[in-house]
Amino acid sequence: MAGSALVTQTMSAPAIRVEGFIKRYGKRVAADGLALTVQRGEIYGLVGADGAGKSSLMKAVAGVLAHDGGTVEVFGTVIDSERAAEKVKQRIGFLPQGLGLNLYPDLSIEENVDFFGRLRGVPGAELAERKNMLLGMTRLDAFRSRPMRQLSGGMKQKLGLVCTLIHEPELVILDEPTTGVDPVSRRDFWAILGKLLEEKGITALVSTAYLDEADRFHRVSLFHEGKVMGEGTPAELIARVPGTLALFRAEPQADALPRLKAQFPQTEAMGAWLRVFAEGLAPEQALTAVEASLGTHSPPVGSNSFDHNRRSADRGRINSLPRQADTASLPLVGSNSFDLGWESTDSGRVNSTPRQADTLPPQGCLTQRTIRLSDWFAREPELEDVFVAMLRQRGARLDTSLPADAPAAAPTSTLAIEASGLTRVFGDFRAADAVSFAVPQGEIFGLLGANGAGKTTVIKMLTGILKPSSGAGRVAGADMRSAGLAIKERIGYMSQAFSLYHDLSVVENIRLYAGIYGLDDRRARQRSDWVIGMAGLAGFENDAAGRLPMGLRQRLALGCALVHEPRVLFLDEPTSGVDPIGRRMFWDILFHLSRREGVAILVTTHYMSEAEHCDHLALMFAGRVVADASPEAMKQELITSAGQLLELRVDRPVPAQNALRDAGFANVALHGRAVHLLSRDADTDRERLPALLDKAGIAVQSVGLRPLSMEDVFVQRISALEEAGRRPA
Amino acid sequence: MNNMTNGGLFSVPGLRRLRVMTQKELLQLFRDVALMVFFLYSFTGDIYLAASGVSMQLKNAAIATLDADYSFASRELASRFQPPYFQPAGSVADARQAIRRLDDGDVMAVLDVPPRFQERLQRGEQVSVQLQVDTSNSVLGFLASSYGAQIVGKYALEAAAQREGLAAAGGIAGPLVEADTRVWYNPNQNDAWFMGISELLTVVTLFSILLPAAAMVREKERGTIEQLMVTPLTSFQILFPKVVAMTLVILAGSAIALFGVLGPLFQLPMRGSLVTFFLITALYVFTTAGLGLLAATVARNLAQVGMLTVVILMPMLLLSGAWTPIEAMPPWMRGLAWISPLHYFLDAAYGILLKGVGLDLLWDSVLAMTGLGIIVFAAGMRRFGRQFG
Fold it and tell me: In this complex, do B21 and A489 lie within 8 Å of one another by their Cβ atoms?
């Protein structure tokens, strides 16, 4: 291996050591005293939202950006000058942020790889050999002569990785390699990266804006506004803020949410469910506290154990949906995995049968309506819950000024959006192909799909920006083709780019849209005050919109889309680049709009974790809707068709992954030091897998069930469809 | 909800939409510091430079003498090449040196006087002198050769008259025709007026294309245009306020140029009605802004707008008659000149500012400009509508 002499020579030094790193851009401080150490052979993650300082640090480590303070050391060499940087550059591979930005669009895959190889002085024979190996591994070898610009986002990113690795660097620095890449390609990318790093013993510094990707790393640093909020293994970080994550239903939900929020700031509505992070409380305490804040005071009923289905007590139930509050509760898919955090204490045993106040007053009781609690599940929190808790400890606030006591919107079956057979053809490309779905008033409807699946095309047809080639759509009761301008007064739209005028102030932006929608001055003032309160923009009224932090900018854009009180709201990728606090506040507002004001909301997102906020989902693939159901129904179906998600912690993950594949498991994925797989017979597999791996010389530290995520659902569905698409071709 | 009706263009909400959109454009423009600096410079500094520096007159052209005669007559002829047109720049020894100094650009002309020049004049023989002129700049070269020919001709006439005994005090006592010219509109033949106005019109044209195109393409780049398409604004309500805002700003710029630069510093007379001038300028800006919007539907980013602006601006200037009279162009180009709005604006602007004429004489230019404006704006709207429809 190249550089093995060097490796032994400087073995003592860590791969990267950063202390007190400061970077300023003009007056803005991008990185404020960052510190971290990356050991050799580690996959180290920098996790944080846009503007948190990840890119500045990575560029400094790669030796392409000068910094204003602190020390950056790579392989024991202090990077403080151009010359020092040159010394280690040959041992580093750097993939900058942005899909294929370092590649040449007009060159073919092969030409790009050759160019980077020659640039790095890789000898011809070696270059050819490595190229074949890397292109084979990334499955790009079938497209060698295709120009880079014709590749999909995922393929561009894989090619970027190949070009970064062609000179066999000892350290690769990958800046947000998975941003903007669809979940299937994203998983693929992690699998390839993990394998390569393991085989070559490479160290990797990788950044991501997706908190749920943190478990792909050995160790991570959580970044927020130029500071490191915490460092350690994902499990260590999660353990830093003890508490219980509870998932349950409460009726009526709109009344339960404000009451819970008063006591648990980290309360979110996820479709029909409520999700509460009870900081510092064990599961039983959490249940008591939630009941107290809801005003339901019934004692725990029954003695069902949280892990009943695992113990095969009543496995049959898993196939029915936890819909009705009167059936014995069914665990939300896979959420009974206490063994990951709580097994040792056994205090996680909570009742999972429905409970309700012993007296049930009629709906609409004037003072305090009783709230029924059902379907209670508790487990250890996720990294995002912990991150938000850390930010709250530092003074971040989650509350918006939305009136908590506004009456809930009367349930209605009026359809707000109806797409029937919407089709749009560009040349011979069908961007949208007979897309049909319906969204009733007051529902949050999610449109999921990879880049290019047709989500934006559908939104554009429904909002009247684009004319459909065939099919029809009715929005707010009007046919969008004939309604013309009238329909536009009833809809609000927020595009991916947040569509604000950056050089106008907050108030000027709001007033502009108020004027465009024809509001008179008095009304414009009222709505402007409402937007400022709702978005938490007080104090920023006269700041230029372009200078606001992402979260505020996003809520201002939402406010501008809401200034005329539309009945239907279209949101195209509304939360990209926003930190978790901003995302939570944003979803709070959407929930308020849908439940209290009865607004129908159509949202597209590539954050699969956000899809769980939606009441209903439609999954798009290649212009078609391939699934249309509630999130829990989709997960349920995945369990039925592919099995439950098992997590194995092992000492050697890559060989374990191979051994499991050989054992016939199709969906094995590497997550940091753990391996995930789908099992049709989770109970048996839990028992037999440790022995199976032991035979291959791999020690299993733990096996447990994990809750399925929407990303699991998405990846399964799309992989199956891609497979089906490949076969006839 | 019910207080919002889409309404017609001139309903209350319709007018409010036009108002807020126009205000928005003005605000955005004033906050673009770089663009405002460029804008102010163009309407002041650039026009000052054009009016004071650029001249199409022959001034102080360096002339060397290759005198092979060394006589009184040869020195007398050479000494007549004087400022303001010429500037004597010494003598050269031989033809090779003469060519070298011309090649170097050291001198613009060389007067070559042959041997026995005086002797042959006095004998009454015909004699030629040679004037070698650098005509890389054809206008200046042409002027130098004709002024030179005039100087030599006058000297020859005087020499002949003297020999024939017709010389009188201060002139020639013989049958002669004197040409007596009256110079109208610009009696001092002050180049600053012509160049200043010409530059002002060029700058007005530049910004009429650039500002709306830049404003439009910025909305495309930022994605705000889609946001506007989703609102109840018609294409007209999106495009027209841009043109209105840019027209106001360009009129303000023209006023600064006229009353801040050309008036006080160059004593431009401004003989006609200024109201008419500004009305016609507004009409012209509207017309040309349509071209800018059309360009913005083609361009993807600001850099492309810049290039398209140059591509549109250059032929407009060339065809307008600002640099060459239309009558001097080949016939096919003359035809094209009729569709350059700048051609009509030029007629009108010189007419009002220098000649003091009014609408009674300019109505045909105004009519042609209006027609062109409507066609171009409609084409811009149509393309915009199709692109986002």
Answer: no
Upstream peptide bond of A105 is cis (omega within 30 degrees of 0): no
Interface subset of B 25-54, CB within 8 angstroms of A: 27-28, 31-32
Chain A interface includes B3 (CB < 8 A)? yes
Average pLDDT of chain A is 80
The fold of A643-726 is: Alpha-Beta Plaits (3.30.70)
pTM of the predicted protein model: 0.77
Query: CA of A570: which chain B residue's CA is closest?
Result: B230
- Helix axes B359-388 and B274-298, enclosed angle (nearest 10): 20
Could you tell me what percent of chain A has a pLDDT over 70?
A: 85
Contact A489 B230 (CB under 8 A): no
Q: What is the SS3 string spanning A450-508?
A: CCCCCHHHHHHHHHCCCCCCEEEEEECCEEHHHHCHHHHCCEEEECCCCCCCCCCEHHH
In angstroms, what separates the C-alpha of A521 from chain B's closest C-alpha? Answer: 10
Domain with CATH 3.30.70.100 in chain A: 643-726
Q: Which of B27, B222, B230 has the CB atom closest to A493's CB atom?
A: B230
Chain A residue at shortest CA distance from B11: A518
Where are the CATH 3.40.50.300 domain residues in chain A?
4-232
Is residue B215 located within the same domain as residue B348? Answer: yes
Contacts of B23 in chain A (CB under 8 A): 512
Q: Is residue B117 part of a domain?
A: yes
Assess contact for B111 and B65: CB atoms under 8 A.
Answer: yes
- B200 shares a domain with B89: no
Measure B275 CA to nearest chain A CA, in Å. 32
Please check whether the domain covering A4-232 is classified as CATH 3.40.720.10. Answer: no
Question: B57 with B87: CB under 8 angstroms?
Answer: no
Residues of A with CB under 8 A from a CB of B: 460, 463-465, 467, 485-486, 488-491, 493-497, 499-504, 508, 511-520, 523, 544, 560, 564-565, 570
Same domain, B162 and B229: no
In this structure, the number of other CB atoms found within 10 A of the CB of residue A181 comes to 24
Query: What is the complex's ipTM, to 2 decimals?
Result: 0.74
Separation between Cα atoms, residue A544 and residue A562, nearest integer Å: 20
Tokens for A334, please give them. 């896979």
Residues B149 and B259 in one domain: no
Reading the block at residue A665, the tokens are 């498991």
Other beta carbons within 10 angstroms of residue A3's beta carbon come to 15
In sign, the C-alpha dihedral spanning A717, A718, A720, A725 is: positive
How confident is the model over A214-251, as pLDDT tens digits?
Answer: 888 989 999 888 889 889 998 899 899 999 999 888 88
> B25 with B95, same domain?
no
Question: How many Cβ contacts (< 8 angstroms) between chains A and B?
Answer: 98
| Number of domains into which chain B is organized | 2
Interchain proximity B230–A491, CB inside 8 Å? yes
Question: Can you give the residue range of the structural domain that contains B320?
Answer: 12-53+189-388
Q: One digit per residue, pLDDT tens: chain B, 389 residues? A: 333 444 566 677 788 889 999 999 999 999 999 999 999 999 999 999 888 876 667 788 899 999 998 899 999 999 999 888 899 988 898 889 998 998 888 899 999 999 999 999 888 888 899 999 988 887 788 888 889 998 998 888 888 888 877 777 667 777 777 777 776 776 666 777 888 888 899 899 999 999 999 999 988 888 888 888 888 888 888 888 999 999 999 999 999 999 998 888 888 888 888 898 999 999 899 888 888 888 888 888 888 998 998 888 888 888 877 667 777 778 887 778 777 888 888 888 888 888 888 888 788 888 888 888 888 888 888 888 777 64
CB nearest to A488's CB, from B12, B224, B230: B230
